[in-house]
Each structure stands twice: as C-alpha cells, then as structure tokens.
User: Fold this.
Amino acid sequence: HLVESGGGAVQAGGSLRLSCVASDRTFASFKTMAWFRQAPGKEREFVAAIARSGDNTYYADSVKGRFSASEDNQEKTVYLEMNSVKPEDTANYSCAGDSRGYTYATGQYSSGHNYNYWGRGTQVTVSS
Assistant:
C-alpha cells in the first residue's frame, strides 16, 4: 500500500528527497502519515509526521530544522526533504499511515504503535 523511493548514498552536508506513494483509497483513509527510520542494531525511531487535518507537522528533535515533511494530495504522495544530512542519519527510512485515527485520539504522533500501514523502506547512507 505504501512504496518509498529516493534513498541512496550522499555525503554529509548534502540533501535527499524521499517519496512515499499510496494507492488512492489508502491515501484518502489516512489521518496522519509519518516517516520512521531504523539503523542497523538500533530500534526504529520517529522522524516526522503530517497530521492531515490542519496540515500540522511534527519532527524529532534530531532532525528539526534540517528535515521537512510535506504531502501532495493529487499525487497521493508524502515527501521527506532531508537537508544538511549527517552520518548519523544513515538508516532505512519507512513511511507509515494511520487510518484508524489513533494518532488523533492519543496525540502521540511519534509512536509507531499508532500506525497500521507501513512501507518496506528506502535506504539512506550518509558518508563523512
């Protein structure tokens, strides 16, 4: 239901834009869409989220000011613009969607438990 793209290898200080495409019906059902990442040997961590009602965005402190999440309703796509990347940004980046409204109900946009659709991810590798 969710397909990510745009990952790759980039040098520190560079930029990447990740995309996540959803099917028409799936995209329309999402209350919130988010990006998470997981580095080898580490737990999955929240990166950014877009609450589609009101277009509020939320970011992890580690990426605030460097990453930007956005969506294109016509293209059924959410984006993650990554600027000033650092080696510690190296990870597999997955997008997620909440069609049940758990993010709204709990106010917890950073919890993976509140998302019921997941993509397989796209790898980002940042070299120093």
Notes: The chain is about 10% helix and 50% strand. The mean pLDDT is 96. The radius of gyration is 14 Å.
